[in-house]
Design a protein that fits this description.
By secondary structure, the chain is mainly α. The protein has a domain at 20-76 and 91-121. The protein contains four helices and no strands. The protein has helices spanning 23-48, 60-75, 78-82, 100-121. The longest helix is centred in the first third of the chain and has 26 residues, at 23-48. Keywords: Membrane, Transmembrane, Transmembrane helix. It is found in: Membrane. It comes from Scophthalmus maximus. Its main location: membrane. It is a multi-pass membrane protein.
């Protein structure tokens, strides 16, 4: 997904834009604007509706968890994700990791998520009556 800006088309012509050295800057600014906008909207809603009955403050939990996830994702370099680890250092080279537990956790959560979607949107409204 790191190259999603590589083949931008401008109308009928294929404009292969060479982002070059500005790619990191553009991506960082865009991510910052999106992150800021998300928090700005939720803070605006909290200020506009300070009463717990209209806007329960526990709803901030989703944004806090997403922010922690955002920081955790960016704490790992792309080289480590691809397996391009350092050959030297205080820890040394990493061994070949066991992959299946991570895949199992991903599929567990994916199936629970899609099961919830099917249960919510795939049934009729009179199921519990």
């Amino acid at each position: 997904m790191s190259g999603f800006l590589d083949g931008i088309r401008c109308g009928d012509c294929e404009c292969n834009v060479d982002w070059g050295e500005r790619r990191n800057t553009i991506a960082s600014v865009a991510a910052g604007v999106l992150f800021f906008t998300g928090w700005w909207i939720i803070i605006d809603a909290a200020v506009k509706y300070p009463d717990q009955g209209q806007f329960h403050h526990a709803y901030h939990t989703c944004g806090v968890i997403a922010t922690v996830a955002f920081l955790m994702i960016n704490a790992v370099s792309n080289g480590q994700v691809r397996g391009d680890s350092y050959s030297e250092g205080c820890i040394g080279q990493t061994e070949k990791p066991v992959v299946y537990p991570g895949i199992a956790i991903f599929f567990q959560n994916a199936f629970i998520f899609f099961g919830g979607l099917v249960f919510k949107f795939g049934r009729t409204e009179d199921l519990w009556q």
